[in-house]
Fold these 2 entries.
Entry 1:
Amino acid sequence: MDTLYKNFLKENKVYRPNIAYWHRQIKRMLKEAHIDLEREKYLADRFHDGTLFFDGNPIFNAWLKGSNKAFRIIQEDPEEFDDYYASFKKEITISGIQYEELVIVLTLSRTRREKALTEIKEWLKS
């Protein structure tokens, strides 16, 4: 199994680079897909004191200004979930506005990362 950031839930020093990894991957995918929408977090990933939740939910999230779409990635523990990938869509409200949210739940590997990025890209372009 080609799991990436395997110990991200057990070691805080692995968690932060894992978040940065997702930011780079999403930024690259949006640029390559010529999707130029301003994005912003819509879900908290930190406590009031600024400490990260360190739970992988979400490992990345963004709502896209100028569209009615938001998405989040929930990264699960590979020891508990093995090779896992699932996704679903639901309606959410952000600041009083209805959005369609794409939720992807996975254990991180190169293959599942590419599947997630492809699904996000295709969904954003639809």
Entry 2:
Amino acid sequence: MGEWTTVYEDEIEERLVTLKVYRSDQAADEDGDDGPAIRVTTTSAEGSSSVVEDDQDGDTLLVEREATARLITLEPYSLEDLEGELMEVGFSPKAAAQIANKVPA
């Protein structure tokens, strides 16, 4: 049996990032993939937004909404896919490379 082990946890680009790898006592998968299983949990990059609303008197109001961060979990098929998936959820190429470099060999 194996278990998920946290190998990195920090804030990058003002978003919490937790990187876990699955460590197993068993040999490589039967499909020949000997890379580690990877799981990255982060928060969404959504910021606060301004919304225009009309009140009961017909006046227009500008309303600031609080940022609502959603948890995002990525489980890329391979280490090579990790950077691309991180960029898809809003990380810069530099930040994606920084996170991917934390995966142990």
